[in-house]
Every structure is written in structure tokens, then in C-alpha cells.
Amino acid sequence: MKNQIVNQLKEFIASDKTRFGRLVKFDGQNGFSEEAAQGLQDLEARTPPLDVVTEPAFSPPYVHRDRLSEKNAAGGGLIKGDDGAKRPHYWGHRQRLRERFLKGGHGPMPEYELLELLLFNAIQRIDVKPLAKRLLAEFGDLNGVIAASKHRILKVEGANDWVYYHLRVVEAFGHRMAQAQVMKRDVVSSWDALVTYCRTAMAHREVEQFRVLYLDRKNVLISDEEQAKGTVDHVPVYPREIVKRALELNASSLILVHNHPSGDPTPSRSDIEMTDRVLDACDTLGILIHDHVIIGKKEEYSFSANGFLQRH
Predict the structure, then answer these.
(1) pTM over 0.85
(2) 153 phi and psi angles, rounded to 5 deg
(3) How many domains does the structure of the chain reveal?
(4) Do both 211 and 296 map to the same domain?
(5) In terms of DSSP bridges, do strands 253-259 and 288-295 run parallel, antiparallel, or are they unpaired?
(6) CATH number at residue 100
(7) Domain shared by 139 and 165, yes or no
(8) What are the distances in angstroms from CA 34 to CA 37, 40, 41, 44, 223?
(9) Cα separation of 191 and 186, whole Å?
(10) Model pLDDT for residues 128-143, shown as the tens digit of each residue
(11) Beta strands in 108-220 (DSSP E)
């Protein structure tokens, strides 16, 4: 075997002496130098016999995935470009979609394309349109997708932790922008902005959430605090804790807000009873309750507008 390797190297080196002459000292009459011969012996020692099946010493840290499968490429596979090269069917789609968004804005774009723009940053080099459509099918609309829990997001085929992270960032931006419209302002006279803020924060939650907005004497929002979380149809509320916190903040009035994950904002019997208990506790200390608002998917219910906060 050694003689076979030597003969092959002689022929290979002789075909390009200029390139290999500096790497292996060899001439056609005297053979290999001592250093080169030792290198050949080392090479032979490291070369396994021809009948031995070899395996990698360790597994690669990556997992090979076929990015052009029907599952990942939405069935498009490869297409041939003008230059004759084969590329994924979605080649250039990301850049085209970005340019269309920057040129025409989000108005004419369907929701799945807006979601695609976000998913571009979360998942690299595959067609994310199928994932965007699966998310919207699962959660109904963009609001539902953005507000969905991690557990439910990860159950959607193709979604991962990085997708969930990007959704949470978008949600945080939305909340901060809506909150900026009501903080340090007379929220009673900016009621539409307040309702928009509450809807952004709570309308698409999967469990009930109870929040208290604490106001000063000029009805300026001092603090917006989550008092409790519950189940899909119940949240525990403790009037004593609400009053205690109002005294700590030196709040003069309150607005109570909670959501109904079912989407229907109609108050239940327990909602009405809980409101009465909070109202009694606040009356004792001269704290005014402006309203109790229930946030539904598409509309809200005001206790004040429907006469539930009137004392006889």
C-alpha cells in the first residue's frame, strides 16, 4: 500500500513541481527526502485500512434540516432564475416585502404579511409565510397572536422561543405607546385614550386580569397596577388591598378595570357583587370610584354608564 501511495504522490507532484516543490522535497532520481519520507509514514499510520468503516469522533453541534422540504418551503421547492441557477421559490421575497412596506406603509398589507415582517427577524432563511398564517389561524388576528401565552405559541408548528421573544417585544412597544397617551393626564376627560390603553393591555388576555387605576385630586393617573390574575372566568379581588394601596399613593379616586377572555363584556353576578364590596370599602374612606370597566374583545362595558355605581 505504501508503494502505491508513493507512486501516486510522485505522479501528482511531478505534474506541478512549481506549486508543490516548496512543500515536499522530491526529485525524480533520488526520491523523497528523509523529512518527506517520514511524513509519508505518518500519513500511512493515520490512514485506516480499506475494509474498515469509520465514524466521526463526535457528533456535529448542528442538526441538518431540509429547508426546501414542503413543510419548510410551503411546497414551492426550487425554481430556475434568469441566470440558470436554482433557488428557493421564495428567493428575494423578504427584500421585496420590506421595500413594499417602506414604500406604501402597512395599510394595504394583509395581517399575515405584517407578521411575516416580524418573523423575518426571528427565523432566518426559510419561508415564514406558512408560520404566519398558522399563527393567525390559531389566534384569530394580530392582537391574539401578540397577546398569546408562551405555552400556546410554542404549540404552533414552526414557532420557537425566538418567535415568542419578538412577539413580547412588539407587545411591550404597543403598551408603552398606549400608556403614554394617558399617563400624567386627566384620564376622565381623555376617556377614549384610556379605553384604548386598557384594550391594548387586556382585551386579548387568556385569563382574567384585574387592574386598578389610581388618580389624584385632578384625576391625573398616579399609577396603573395589576391587582390580581385569575382563571378564564374568575379573578380574586380584595377590597382591603385596593383601599390600602390608594392610601399609600394618596389617591383620591379610582377606576377599576378587568377583562373577560370570552370576549363578552357583560358583567356577571359576581362582577356586580365584587364592585359593590369595593365601593363600600372606598366610601368609608372618602375615595371615589369613577367607573368599573369590563374589557371585551370588541367592546367595553361601563358600570357608571349603566347605573351600577349610583348609591340610593
Answers:
(1) no
(2) -60, -45
(3) 3
(4) yes
(5) parallel
(6) 1.10.150
(7) yes
(8) 5, 10, 11, 15, 85
(9) 9
(10) 899 999 999 998 888 8
(11) 209-215
